[in-house]
Fold this sequence. Notes:
Blueprint (H helix, E strand, L loop, with lengths): L20 H20 L2 H21 L7 H12 L11 H15 L7 H11 L20 E4 L6 E5 L6 H14 L11 H15 L6 H17 L7 H7 L1 H11 L6 H35 L5 H11 L12 H8 L3 H14 L2 E4 L6 E4 L22
Antiparallel strand pairs: 1-2, 3-4
Helix pairs in contact: 1-11, 2-3, 2-4, 2-9, 2-11, 3-4, 4-5, 4-8, 6-7, 7-8, 7-11, 9-11, 13-14
Amino acid sequence: MKYNWQQSDWPDFRYDLSGIQDALFSFAEKTGQVSGVLKSLPESMQTEAVIDLMVSEAVKTSEIEGEYLSREDVMSSIRNNFGLNKTPKNIHDQRAKGVADLMMDVRHTFSSPLTKKKLFEWHKMLMMGQSGKIKTGAWRAHKEPMQVISGPIGKWKIHFEAPASESVPREMKAFIQWFNNTAPGKSQEINIAPVRSAIAHLYFESIHPFEDGNGRIGRSLSEKALSQGLGRPVLLSLSKTIEANKKEYYSALKNAQQSNEITSWIHYFVAAVLNAQCEAETQIDFILRKTEFFDHFKDQLSERHIKVIRRMLDEGPQGFEGGMSAKKYVSITGVSKATATRDLQYLAETGALKQTGGGRSTRYVVNLSSINHPIRAMHRPEIWPKIP
Length: 388
């Protein structure tokens, strides 16, 4: 069996978009809605929304590769980059700092042409805090095949084998040229952003030019392609959507690397991008509700109450896993169990929390249901040219 890069038509990708017009229209519509709502918010809330989405992307892009970063370190690093911490906080996990730096750079340089130098800079950021065994800021050069495998030692199953290291410089020169030539307004423009983003990701992953970090940099390239198509930094966490169903992602990628007819891959990726944009819409709505919640209850909450509620809300729209219990309250605040129980009962009486269960199974969740400020369309959708 030959992989895509071994076939005579590489990298002349072919695809049919006739089955995904609705998904592409929905994505364009939602990007317009989210952008409109965001622009209507106070600057501080805009920044909070952007940071929340960037933190989610930074954390999830590493989780896909089996690395689990401190959300607090990632958040602190991004806030440092935005200049929001009066005294920059010390970041304990340098891997978190590196991923956060990468997210910031992708956001700030989205409109610039792609270069080998930029990719090497991204790789150095991403490998910050990693062991010194991996050469950073350089294409892979080892003679052994670069393979994607699974299974126990001695019984490995090979899912994909990338081009030999000696051909990587040539392949990446062609990829960088393709990426820049297909950008908006260029000679080979692909004028539907999610489609170009999908191809960029598959093309890059098929070359697999670095010893490590290819998945994370590939997703950053997808984000750059989307942002260039929109003309502004895209607001979504693609990695969060992919991480939620990694098996589907790896299966779609594996199938796409068998041929240069990639219709199925385009369909998968456009659906993933649309889901990610829906998640972003939910996240921004959640931020609006949080703000209104604290405005509503500001005179009824002590610093201790606020600390606990903020910790619960840090988990995002999906909620604090398992709900808040007296035991967890004690762990967060250091108060006695009796005080924790009284505090939780008080918060339920005020309406800040909702009680679920009873007895030893009593749990509490933040009551955002009374905060009614859903996202509404404020701008017309940004529509790409009609699909032939």
